[in-house]
């Protein structure tokens, strides 16, 4: 037993010395995280959020054709961005790496009934239901095909 412990001492000392001399990565503070979704029709996505949920379009970047290549939307502290797949393909580095697909957003709201009314006419993916984690929610599809779940916790 003593021999085993003595044999382990150099390994333990080396590990402790290595840990003490390695630099720790500096702490990173994330100031904000904004979903950046892509679509073939930025204008339709903007109308969806502005007309239904009263977001404000804060930034727009047109393509040469005049169609929107990018738009940023905001409501209070919540920000959302949409870019066009056409503009994404122009970024040489990114164009080799991205894949088209559905994104999923989860939004907690204070009045699910009013939100459901605001979403009338949007493709309903999942009707209003209670979840095992305590929310009442429903899911719709935006014009770009992304799924948006609206949830209210504590709804009777």
Question: How does this structure look, described?
Answer:
The chain contains 5 helices and 8 strands, in the order H-E-H-E-E-E-H-H-E-H-E-E-E. With 156 residues, the protein is of the alpha/beta class. It folds into 2 domains: 32-96, 2,3-Dihydroxybiphenyl 1,2-Dioxygenase, domain 1 (Roll), CATH 3.10.180; 102-156, Signal recognition particle alu RNA binding heterodimer, srp9/1, CATH 3.30.720. A hairpin with a 5-residue loop joins strand 7 and strand 8. The longest helix has 20 residues, at 2-21. The radius of gyration is 24 Å and the shape is globular.
Summed up, what is this model?
This protein has 156 residues and is α/β, with parallel strands linked by helices.
> Strand fraction band?
25-35%
- Report the span from N to C terminus: 64 Å
Number of strands: 8
CATH superfamily membership of the largest domain, which one? 2,3-Dihydroxybiphenyl 1,2-Dioxygenase, domain 1
Give the strand order of the largest sheet, numbering strands 1, 2, ... along the chain: 1-4-3-2
CATH fold field value of the largest domain: 2,3-Dihydroxybiphenyl 1,2-Dioxygenase, domain 1
Subunit organisation of the chains:
single chain
Radius of gyration over all CA atoms, rounded? 24 Å
Query: What are the low-pLDDT stretches, counting only 5+ consecutive residues below 50?
Result: 1-6
Q: What's the number of helices?
A: 5
Shape: globular
CATH architecture of the largest domain: Roll
Helix content: 25-40%
**What is the N-to-C succession of helices and strands?**
HEHEEEHHEHEEE
Q: Helix/strand/pairing class, anyone?
A: alpha/beta
The CATH class label of the largest domain is Alpha Beta
